[in-house]
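Structure, all two chains, one model.
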Amino acid sequence: MKNLFCTAVAAGALALTMAGPAGAAAPESDEPIKLTLHDWSGQYITTTIMGNVLKSMGYNVEYVQADYLAQFAGIETGDLTAAMELWDTTAAEALAASVATGNTIDLGETGMQAKEEWWYPIYMKEQCPGLPDWQALNDCAELFATPETGSKGRYLGGPVTWGGWDDERVEALDMDFEVVHAGTDAALFAELESAYQRQAPFLGWVYAPHWAPAKYEGEWVEFPPYSAECYNDPSVGLNPDMAYDCGKPSGLVRKAGWAGGEAVWPCAYEAIRAFTIDNATMGQLVAEVDLEGKSVDEVVDAWMDANEATWQSWTTCGG
Amino acid sequence: MTAASLEVARPRRRPLGAAPYWLGAAILAALSVSFSDRLPEWMVEYPRAWRIPIEPSISAAMKWLINDATFGLFTFQQFTRSIAWCFNWLLEAAYGVLAEGFTFGKGEDALHIPHVSWIALIIVLVMFARRVGDRGLMLFVGFCFAYLAVFGQWASAMVTLASIVISVPFGVAAGLLVGIAAYRKPWVERAVTPVLDLMQTVPVFAYLVPILFLFGFGPVAAMIATMIYAAPPMVRLTVLALRGVPEEIKEYGRMAGCSQRQHMWKVMVPAAKSGLLVGLNQVVMLSLNMVIIASMIGAGGLGFDVLHALRRLAIGEGLEAGIAITLLAIALDRLSQAAANRPPPAHGSVRAGSWFVRNRLALAALALMVFSMAAGTVVPVITDYPASMTVTTGKFWDHVVQWLNINLYDTITIVKTWLLVNIMLPVKGFMVALPWPVLLGILAFAGWRLGGWRLALLPLALGAFILVTGNWEKAMITIYLCGLSVVIAALIGIPLGIWAAVEPRRRRATLAVIDTLQTLPSFVYLIPVIMLFGVGDFSAMIAVVAYALAPAVRYSIHGLRQVPEHLVEAGRAQGCSRGQMLWKVRLPLALPEIMLGINQTIMMALSMLVITALVGTRDLGQEVFTALAKADTGKGIVAGLCVAFIAITADRLIQAWSRRRKAQLGIA
């Protein structure tokens, strides 16, 4: 019954927007725009910025906590309106599948670049002087050994769902490492924190923008540079018989939303498309929240006061 | 009858019983593993070519259910959405009152009426506690809610409380009604039992995606998932409690000429109250246990705070939010128990005065809350506890973990490595290497011995499902991890239950610890555990044991306490020593209940698989988790069913064993 009701409301809103001029001053619909919140601060910040901007345009905004990957189910049905941070490195597949249903649309890039690679704390350099070169790393593989991995070094990969082709990389480059998957990134960084406190060897999957590279001093391992051919074509790269004999690609961070919402809140969608922020700004905001202990609202308000011209330019709505 | 049963319970020489079979099975298993390289390949590893692709058809069926299924006038999805709409309405009302207030209008010039004041709510709850319980309860409730305010957890706690206030009564009512139906009609029980097993053991992540599609994204879907998970113990305990009503009481009800309905609601249900209250306790505890997972799909509240804090490795903050969940759970549990346990008012006093006079306290409470909402518009402090006055011990806990990590890591690692190398890895290797026909054969034989050919077919059928879907190896890793954990949990839990059952003070202390372990989100201690023990099976095992311990202890206490007093008396009259009383009288008589506890321990251990997946195991839990991440409904449900089938096999075999044992002891 709710569906009939909702359809009626949406249809009514649609009729209104079609009839009246699409002015920026009056929002097209009172229906709340539902933005998804996940459990990492960066996403919390981008979403809050977007929410505040939409509110300043007169929209009703609701925040809904949703699992990063399970949220697509909600976006497809219109239960959720938009997601502000979808990393190509982790959500590309799910996003593509969701867009293929026709109910989700890609709302463009956020301007942030995701970087992910094998990472070690800086103190490892003393014990393994050739770093960050991957061959030098391979020579000190035994430094990173644990009881479970025997004489091989342990590389702590992300959750299996992150993909990343690390098992293939180890094989293709013939490295003396074993890939152990942490089930969540919380588990991954718990191990990093533990090792860092003890100044013990650690090698794992770290990505940016994230608070970890800001909190812990360390470096990314340098593999042969990534290219699409290296991933697709076995003959390219160091190992003539295998693909993945190079480093990881960096990826974009995208926004996406419910396809049906375009008709309900056209100006809002335009503003969401216009939203951009760069890595450095983001890294700094995240560090203020996670490392300095400020609240998200505090940090977002300060940024919005200082950068009014930037976000005002997103709200012009066609002129 | 009493003397006879004691006589049987004390055989002069133990008959050999099932021992030769156990030994035979063990030797067969050991031989088959050590000579596995001489066995044909297909026996050791189920061939890929023999798999049957079930997953795509389940995905397709789900798609049909969501998109095309229709009752004619409206579609299935519209049907579930309207249910969701009703729940959402209730939930919104609860959120409005407790957490968010009510907003009329939109944008920046909307009219806002704040939520109920924290001061008013504490006063009302403390007064309520005083009315239904003693001074201790009053102080405890006051302490719990004061903690929420002082530690800055109030706002989130109220969001969580709102969803619990709506979902628990529904869960309890549904559980009670189904339980009564199952008690009355054996065919209902036969039909319901496997469904209950599935509800409790199929990991929540497996059916999360379909639920999201059917009920929409947000708190309602989370609430429905919570109810699915939390209601089964209520059904089970209702049946058990009604069965436990003494024959004399039933007889009396019949003599008094009760109608069937009167007999159930005026005689049976009140008489079964203590068992039903255990059910209520379990629903509250399990609902709060789901808080973390519920927050992943939009429930918000304390669960979200825990997740968010731990993603930043703010262990102390996560712990504070986790303790808030625990305190909320225990306070709610104690309040509801006290309210249900209240002696009925003396006859005659019931009708005194008008409706207003009789309910004056409730009305005063209501007035206070409404007044606080109005007053909050003028004085914000009344609505929200001032943020500047909150305290946190977050940093302290971070330092504790850091200290442990730096100073004790090496010692811990030695212990861990020893256990890993000498116990865990060998068991794991054994389970994985065990040829599947051997294991299925042993299970089928055990089933046949314990319960005839039907019980022999069950493990074969369920095992076949695991085989043909290609999940055998993951299932073996699951059995290894859960099996070890259950053994450890039982070894700790049963003695603890025996120790605690004797004396009320011990019992209270133990139950408090157990409740804490069961409701403190495992995520809270999982992160420090990972820091100290590393990613892997060992950390997973600790989490499973901590969580699955609760039913082993609880049911042991309950079982020992409900041993009929006259049998204990009879034992004393025969001159039993304390040890004899325990081993020959109390324990055997409590055995059915304790076994139910072990049964629940297995269920709990399996339901923790999803959490163990978060620390990177390679079992069925990981399969379910991966399926969720890829929104692969079919794969998730198939893996979830495999988990459930392991549970059901264990459950049926244990139940059959327990029945046989009871028959042997003459206490059936």
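Strands of chain A lie at 33-37, 61-65, 82-87, 104-121, 153-157, 177-181, 204-208, 218-220, 251-258.
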